[in-house]
Amino acid sequence: MKLGILDTVPRSYWSTDLGITESEKFIDFLTPVMPDATLDQLFVAENEWPDSLYSYDAYLVTGSPCSVNEEHLWIEKLQQFVRNCLVSQKKLVGICFGHQLIASAFGGTVERRRDGWLLGVESFDIVDVQSWMKPIQMKCEIFHINQDHVSDLPENAQLIGHSELCENSAFVIGDSVLALQ
């Protein structure tokens, strides 16, 4: 498998995270469970894009200190890219900012949380078990550090996970898109 990791952290933020990029964190996390995969970093916030939508088997959109509601050309381009992924049935996973960007790209609403930042490990309930969820677990724990959230899902999204603090914790669109806050 060849995975394109779409890093959404602008270079100006890199020194604030011990010099480790978001995509490197995912490479460190995924390499033990995907030892034969090719995991490539693409710094989309720095205008580094795949040569083609078909350059990779799947894509992962990382977290970011930016908001999807900020006006940046790379965010608009990334929203179009994720729409093209769905049309082409290209596998796509969005985490944190990626989750919010996917929702926004398909007509969902992303806004600031009324309660401020959500920081720490949060448990959410699986409300719609998917066939690929093995072993089946009815609760998942995920680390959060976000002040924005998806308040309204896109019409074509199916909610699969929620919690009291994050109503739209996880959703899918069709068989090719997964988004996790």
TrEMBL record:
Residues 52-172 form the Glutamine amidotransferase domain. One of its GO terms (cellular component) is cytosol. Pfam families: GATase. Gene3D superfamilies: 3.40.50.880. This is Glutamine amidotransferase domain-containing protein.
